[in-house]
Write a structure and sequence with these properties.
The protein is of the alpha/beta class. The chain has helices at about 1-20, 25-30, 50-55, 75-85, 100-115, 135-140, 165-180, 200-205, 215-225, 250-270, 270-275, 285-295, and strands at about 35-40, 60-70, 90-95, 120, 150, 160, 195, 230-235, 235-240. The strands form 2 sheets. It has a 7-stranded mixed sheet with strand order 3-2-1-4-7-5-8, with helices on both faces. It has a two-stranded parallel ribbon with strand order 6-9.
């Protein structure tokens, strides 16, 4: 009788072992670490709770990493409290000082790639980008052939809501100017609501992305396009923030104007494609960089 029970136990153990052999670590990682949204913040206490709750309430398995630049209004403290509610889904990276939008996203990209997320999103904290559009960007990359999906105001079905006339003219004019100078086939090159496949961010040498303001958005799309990746535009309605203060200033506008000219110069005479393409030497992981900085 005892021998029969032992044989049954051994048979059960074999079936259990075979099951776990069939579930590879790569499968587990990809299913758990599919989608991550990067949200840079500086003084967004009025918005941060609502935007995070809206993303998690979608129920679509999104994780979020907030990159906070030492917001004096306590944005990071609010995120830390919400981490208790969303363990394993909400992450916080705090940086010392206001270091700029572009460097915040670069920090988030390296963090997300190092954690092996497959689809990596940029998104504002102020609801100018609707969380309801995240899945549309995801599907554009996941099942519609895109390597980069751009939430676009300037394709059919897109637009702006509650924006002052001067901001619309600046944005629309900037898009036309960028396309004329760079010949890049993207209708909304300054858009900041974007989904990247991990392979795109692995291929781009992120240390060679030079801009820190909204010109950063142009250069990321330009680099991806120059490296042969397919960019798909998804129409969205962009709505001006209701709370907090816009980060737009004259310095950002100047960087955009001069930055586009610089990108054109680089692409014509400085072999831009080779400069922004990753190679074996430059592909250091985020954790290795963090370790080096701590020494």
């Amino acid at each position: 009788m005892l021998g029969g029970e032992v044989l049954q136990l051994l048979a059960f153990c074999r079936r259990y072992a075979n099951f776990w052999k069939s579930v590879s670590p790569a499968h587990i990682i990809s299913s758990q670490l599919e989608k991550i949204v990067i949200i840079p913040t500086y003084n967004e206490k009025e918005n941060i709770t609502n935007i995070l709750e809206a993303i998690f309430q979608l129920g679509q398995g999104y994780h979020v990493v907030v990159i906070d630049d030492s917001s004096p209004d306590g944005t990071a403290a609010i995120v830390r409290q919400l981490q208790l509610k969303y363990p394993g889904q909400l992450f916080l990276e705090e940086r010392q000082g206001k270091l700029g939008l572009g460097t915040a996203y670069i920090h988030g990209f390296k963090w997300a790639v190092d954690k092996n997320y497959q689809f990596i999103f940029e998104m504002d904290a102020d609801f100018s980008h609707s969380p309801n559009d995240l899945e549309r960007l995801y599907e554009a990359c996941k099942s519609q052939g895109g390597d980069v999906a751009v939430g676009s105001r300037y394709v059919k079905g897109g637009g702006n809501v509650n924006w002052p006339r001067d901001r619309i003219l600046l944005s629309r004019g900037g898009s036309i100017y960028t396309r004329l100078i760079l010949w890049m086939p993207v209708q909304d090159p300054t858009a900041g609501f974007v989904c990247y496949r991990k392979e795109v961010l692995e291929t781009i040498n992120l240390d060679q992305i030079r801009f820190v303001g909204y010109a950063f958005q142009i250069e990321m799309k330009f680099a991806a396009w120059k490296l042969g990746f397919k960019i798909k535009e998804v129409p969205i309605i962009f709505e001006d923030r209701k709370f907090g203060v816009s980060k737009m200033n004259k310095g950002i506008v100047k960087e955009g104007i001069l930055g586009v000219l610089n990108l054109r110069w680089q692409s014509l005479f400085k072999n831009y494609r080779n400069r922004v393409k990753n190679d074996v030497v430059s592909m250091r992981s985020f954790s290795q960089e963090a370790m080096a900085e701590s020494k």
